[in-house]
Amino acid sequence: MTQRAVVVIGAGAAGIAAGRRLQEAGIEPLVLEARDRLGGRGWTVDLASSPFDLGCGWLHSAEENPWREIAIAQGRRIDRSVAPWERPAVTVGFPAERQTALGAAMGAFYERLETLAEAPGPDPSAEAALVPDGPMNPLIDAIHTYISGARLAAISLRDLDAYHDTHTNWRVADGYGTTIAAHAQGLDVRLGCPVTRIDHSGRRLRLETPAGVVEAERVIVTLPSTVIAEEPDLFHPALPMKVEAAAGLPLGVADKLFIALEDAQEFEPDTRAFGRTDRVETATYHLRPFGRPLIEAYFGGDFARALEAEGEAGFFAVAREELGDVFGSAFARRIRPLAASAWARDPHARGSYSFARPGQAAGRAVLAAPVDGRIFFAGEACSTHDFSTAHGAYRTGIAAADAAVEAARAAV
Length: 412
Prior knowledge:
13 helices
């Protein structure tokens, strides 16, 4: 482990993609992962004898998502059911006419977003695209806490507009996290081995880990932007431009709570319900995903961050109250929590996925740029159009690996 041509830091979607690409080019990389598991923010767990994703769960832009082909090659089933947010929600507590009003308001929001993004001048927050005092504004803001992990006032308008979406959303029945982790087969991965310092002051890079120092010609860094921003001593000499760019691309928070249903047939499969529709601090509920006897609850933004401090019990208390208000107190007594994520409290992630602060969208390219032909960067925060997704992470991992191979050949 002491000397390698290329070391990849992180065994999430970006790191695994980079490692496989290097292998294809004839380079056997060493992949160092701080966690005791593969997959990073892709994490499948077994609940009620079925796999569910506590991390990324949807193959967004599925028809062009590279993980779809990887999953198929692994022999996994792709579920092409219509996503719950593309269907009418349960009308209890949210009448059809209000749902129609929400759809119209969302359409108007995105039209204004595109128009404002093309206008000259400073980059405002995405809140500027809301219709002033619009009655659906709180719910639109709540929905974006699930999409971006933060409220619209914190998000760059131009960055949000730059996101590429084909609006095709499928799932891997065996789990997205399972697919990502399985793609690491054949790689030399050391788990439980965080890199605490990257010394690039000498001819060879020196990577400090609890297992000792690893020397490398080149390194691909796939750490989340939050870790780079909050660990300024990670690089020696310091890389202030990277730290500044990463600070402008913080990880928002989007958490899930899985809830067991007593009556497996109580709802139509893959439908959804809203908790409150008049405020930002609320959850949304995916009813019977894959037809299984569960509810997948989503919490986002500062609301989710605050609930993490209370653990699974805090998330469930909100869900039980909101679902009780919608479906009745008897229903609330028949459900129980199974598992919850807490991505902001994960020391190796410190959030779910990145958003750009107003005026900081250009930081994605800055974060992705190589340093000295020896240090390369990848991860969803480095993607200018596919950020916040596992396929965005994959593509940046491929790009970083290709750049590292090119640099190695040029140095010969």
